[in-house]
Design goal:
Helix content: 10-25%
Strand order of the largest sheet: 3-2-5-6
Distance between the termini: 61 Å
CATH architecture: Sandwich
Number of strands: 7
Order of helices and strands: HEEEEEEE
CATH topology: Immunoglobulin-like
Number of helices: 1
CATH class: Mainly Beta
């Protein structure tokens, strides 16, 4: 019986550790969602705490009503977008990116 309790305690401890690591890894992630009626082309930049652009972390098309997940180093992003891939990108919007927050791009 003692061996079972010890094994169960160790299992519970490892499980708690893994859950904590997973929860912290997801802290700086968010989802960008296209409007229901339009595809959207987006360039997402990592941003620091002051909102300054850093490197591109995602670039591409999000189909109408769909979403993509990005991970930000400091929990902040900036993004530009266009509804027409032949037109210039605009917006330069700054958003917090954490806890799987959904950001509607429009």
């Amino acid at each position: 019986m003692f061996k079972f309790k010890r094994s169960f305690s160790l299992f519970f401890l490892v499980l708690t550790f893994l859950w904590t690591v997973h929860a912290n890894a997801e802290d700086n992630s968010c989802r960008l969602m296209a409007p229901e009626q339009d595809d959207v082309w987006v360039i997402v930049y990592d941003a620091d705490d002051d909102g300054n652009r850093k490197q591109i972390i995602w670039k591409g098309k999000i189909e109408a009503g769909k979403q993509i997940t990005v991970n930000a180093t400091d929990g902040n992003i900036r993004y530009d977008y266009t509804l027409d891939p032949g037109s210039p990108y605009g917006g330069d919007l700054s958003r917090g990116c954490h806890d799987q927050k959904i950001i509607l791009v429009e």
